[in-house]
Amino acid sequence: RELEEDPAIRCAIMTGDETLARHVFDRLARGVPLTDLCERIIAPALQRVGDDWASGAVSIGAEHRASAICERLIAARTHQPQGRPRGIAVVTTPPGERHGLPALMATACLREDRWLVHHLAADLPVSEVTDLVSETGASLVVLSAATSEAVQRAAEEADAITQDSAGPRVLAGRPGDSLGQLRQQARASLARSAEG
Fold it and tell me: Which regions in the chain score pLDDT beneath 50?
């Protein structure tokens, strides 16, 4: 079925009615991949919330509350599938990036695609990320950046991780990148690893 943004969920997250948001999300989720829910329901709703915040129509507190509700909606449906994983990934944000929701969506997308994902949330130093990459044997690192300022830091961290670690592919996401693009790039990184 065709999935469209539902104004009821945006209204619920904006007013802080988490129970209604959960009911609407559960109704929309029937038979729909979590990645599609993130891209077609959560992301557009949060984009409007962000636009309202930028215009001064919404307080920072209301914007944070809406993001927190969305994080809980996604986290409740994010599970590591059983069976052999496609690969091992570490997902986080660049240092200074406090918006953790895009990293959570990236985690949900990769887990749904059968990756074993170590989700580190937001704002970790490069050394901590590289240590965990080595400890887990991750072949992929995803750095989610929600702001234009964080995009540059993500590129710098990607270079540092590549230099400090033995061979993981690092994908640095930018605002507007789709989860479908992430899935394709992650799979392509596996194909390159198999060839090399």
Answer: none
